[in-house]
Amino acid sequence: MSIASAPTSAPARSGYGGLELLVAGEWLGIEGRDSQPVLNPATGNEIGRLPVATTGDLDRALEAAAEAFPVWRATTPEHRANVLHGAAALLRERVEDIAWQMTLEEGKPIRESRGEVLFTAGIIDFLAGEAMQTFGKVIPGAVPGGTTLVLSEPVGPVAAFSPWNYPLTVPTRKIAAALVAGCTMVIKPAEEAPTSGLAVARALVDAGLPAGVLNVVFGDPAHISEHLIGSPIIRMVSFTGSTAVGKHIASLAAAGAKPCMLELGGHAPVLVFDDVDVDSVVAQLVGSKFHNNGQSCGSPCRFYVQDGIYDQFVARFAQLTKAIQVGNPLDESTELGPLISGRRIDSMEHLVQDAIEQGASIVAGGAAIPGDGYFWQPTALADVPEDALIMNEEPFGPVAAISRFSTEEEVVERANRLPYGLGSYLFTSSLPRALRLPSLIQAGMVSVNACNLGGVDTFFGGVKESGYGSEGGPEAVAAFLRPKLVTYAV
After folding, report:
1. pTM to 2 decimals?
2. How is domain 268-456 classified at the CATH fold level?
3. Catalytic: 263?
C-alpha cells in the first residue's frame, strides 16, 4: 500500500462555505440559530458551521411546500423539464467547485467527486425527460357511451432524507423525480456533507424553480423526521440510510398512512466461479470494493470464491489492495481518502479483530493509519467464516471479506441467507449459469461479469430489509404519482 501525506489544511480555492437553509425561497444562515460544525475527515478540523433549523423554520418549510404544490403541479411537464435541464447544465458548469467542496467535507478522492457531479447531472437530464411520460390512459366504458379515465396525479408534498456517502447523487435522485412528478419537497440532506445538497438546490433555484417548491433543512435527524413526517401536509416519505433507521421512519409514516420509498442497507455477495479470468475479475472487484472507501450500500462485501481459483484470487486481490494510493483526497493521484468519521475507524477495528478471532487472516492492510484524519488501510481478509461479524453486518468501509465455496447450490444458499437484498455480483464464463443464477439470488440488482448496478436511467433498489421502491429510472418518478379513476356516463 502506498500512502501519500495527509493534508494539514484545506488548500485555498474559492473557499468552503455557503452553509444555509432554504426555506420558502429564502436562504437562511446561522444568525439567530444554533449551529453545528462540519469537519474535514482528512484532518479532523472544523471547516464550517451549519445552521440548525428551528421548529419555526420547519413549519415555514412545510407551509411553503403546501402553498407551492398547487402552483407547481399546474405547470406543464415541458416547463418542469426545462427547469431540470437548466439545473443539470449549471451543475456541469460548477463541477470543479462542487467536487472540491464535496471532497473537503466527505473525503472521497477528487476524481470520484468530479465523477459524481457529472453522473448526477445525467440523472437530472434523464428524469427531466420523464416529465413528458407522466400521462394516464383511457379505457372504454362499461356502459354504452361511457368512458373511464385513469389519471396520474402527484402525490403531494414530500419529506425526504438522504445520507452523506453520495451527498449529491442521492438527494438529487429524490428531488428530481419528485419535481418531475409535480410534487414539492422538504429535504434534509446529511449534516456531515451538506454543500452537495445545497448545490443542487442552488442550481434549481438559478434555473427558475419557484419559491417553496424545494426546501432544504438541517439539524437533529430525530427531531426533523418526527416533525416533518408527523405533519398532515406531508403525503409521502423518501428515505435512504440504514435499515434500523429506515424501519423507524416507516413506522412514523405508517401512523399517518403515508407511503414510503426506502433504500436501506446492503451486504452485497460476490459469487466468483472457477471458470473466470482471475486477473480481470480481481481488477474489477478491487476497484469497485474500494470506491468511495467502501462506504456504499451497493459495495461488494462478501466475496465467495470457488475452490479451484481461491488461492490465486486471494493472492492477486491482496497484491492490488496493497498497491492502492492512500492520502490527501484533494490530490489527483489519490485513490483512497479518509473515512467519514472516527466512528467508522472504530467499526473497522471491531470487525477486523472479530474476524481474526474467528479464524480469518489478514492478507492486506488491517489497521488505522497514524496521524491526522480518519484514514484506514485498504484491507483484505481471507478464510473468513460465516459467523464472523463482517459476514453478517454491513461493514460500510474498506474491508473485503473473502471465503471459499465448492458448489453452486452452496454459494446461492450462503448469498441469500442474510435479511439484506440490495446489490449482488456474479462472475462466470458459463452462459447457462449466467442466465440461471440471477433469478435465484435474492436481490433487487444483480450485476453479471461486471461491477455495475445501473446508470442514470435505471432502477435502483432492493428487497427484504434493504427496502422497497426505486431511487432511479422511470420507476422513481412513478413512485411520486398516484392513479385516479374517473368514470363518465353520458
Report:
1. 0.95
2. Aldehyde Dehydrogenase; Chain A, domain 2 (3.40.309)
3. yes
